[in-house]
Amino acid sequence: MKNLFKSIALIAVFAILITSCSKKNDQPADQEVKTEQKDKVLAYIKNLGFTDAQIVDKGDRYVVDGDMVVDKNMEIPADNGMPKTEQYYNGYLVTNSNNILVKVDASITSMAAEINAAIAQWNAVPNSKIKFVLTTGSTYDILIKVDNTIGASVCGQAYLSTSNGKAGSVVWINQALIQGNSFAQRTRTITHEFGHTISFKHTNQSTTINVPGVGGTDALSLMNGGQCGSGATVLSAKDKLATAALYPL
Hints:
alpha/beta, Collagenase (Catalytic Domain), 5 helices, 8 strands, globular
């Protein structure tokens, strides 16, 4: 979380189409497709205002500004990721928002209390149908797990919601980094990352898709980036308004 986006408790689309202008004649056709798709996604991220320094290549995905994870095979949104002027989210809403199944990996069962507290915050948002539900079954929407290798100053990472209406599939928590934080701050990390899975981006991010009717900055937003261990520990009034605006009852 410590290098998070900058925008309001919300989300924002990534997109810009670009074709590959130089390919080796002996390059396999399938590799050409993979390279072209990778270039499109990279260009799309940069079109939102992010620099090379903020984008890390992790093989089959990019990690942007510390904790936002984007698959290289993502579908490029129809509006090509052009910045809007309202409030921030990634443009992809979760279809089963009233029953998002979360599975707790064995690696993070010691943080069950923090996970429960984070889920309770999202589920209690007034006038919103968002509901995270814990499951132990083999079918789930989100897997939350420990990954202490995601970065020396990165408290957590998560996939954003996808173009097919699914929640971001994985949340990674750097337990080794946050274990010395207070219970409230550990819960904040998990709550923040869950926010990304349902399309919210960083409230203090400047180039993303805005949530209609919920504008302006919000120093109290739990979805502000770069505040792991020191930021707001509860969803702000605007965080809740934005959630209700995107996922109304």
